[in-house]
Structure formats: structure tokens, C-alpha cells
Hints:
CATH architecture: 3-Layer(aba) Sandwich
Structural class: alpha/beta
Low-confidence stretches: none
Amino acid sequence: MRVVLDTNILISAFVFPGGTPETLFRAVLEGRIGLITSPALLAEFGRVLGAKFGWDPERAREAVALVARSAAIVRPTNTLHVVHDDPDDDRVLEAAMAGEAEAIVSGDRHLLRIRSWEGIEILRPAALLALLDAPRPRSPRPAPPTDA
């Protein structure tokens, strides 16, 4: 499944380990989730780690580099104006569109209020985790040949 993890989810994964966001990022590292991001989202992630959480620049760069190595980095060509209450959230939609994401995972109320956009589901972290953990239907096995 190809997803965009909103900056708030990545921040939670790195700053508050042990929760669902960290579990989702570990699923990215294990290859269970295909992460999509963009230069704008990576820059925001690094900026928030430093400005809001006081990470030193080198530590923040290392976190951004880990996310970048683990993701498909897309360069959106469309500028969207969908989230009027918080236009910065449009960067998340742009990355999802450019990367043909199946879902956006966010804790942001403006995005969650939308629920789905252009066929892309907008989910809370626990909802994506439930999808990942749900049993998958098994394909039926062909019947063994019979000796007639």
C-alpha cells in the first residue's frame, strides 16, 4: 500500500516512540508500506524537529535522511488549493496525488475532515494499522489432479 504519512505522524514516530505512528514507520522500514513524500514535506519535518522540539540540526538532518531513504520522493507539479483552513495541508494532498497514494495518514483535523479526496483515503494512524493487520483473503488453491 502506497501512503503519505503526514508530518505530524512522522514527528510522533520520531519524538514520541512506542505508539502507532512509530509502528507505521517501522512498517515502512520493513517494506510493508510504500512511503511517499516530497521535498516540501521533508523540509517541514526537519524544520518542526528543530524549531518545535529542539533537535540539533545534525540529528534533524539524520531523521530527514532516514525518511528520504525509506520513501519514494515525488515532485508535485500541481499546486492545490483544497484545504482552505490550513493551506499548508495542501502539500500533503499534492504529494499523495503525485505519488498515486492509496491513503494519507494524518492526525490533522483539517485533513481528517475531508475523509477522502480524489479516491485517496485520509485515515488516522490506527485505521491504517488495522488495515495492515487485517487478515487477507487467501486465494483458493487449485484442486489436486485426480487419477482417473
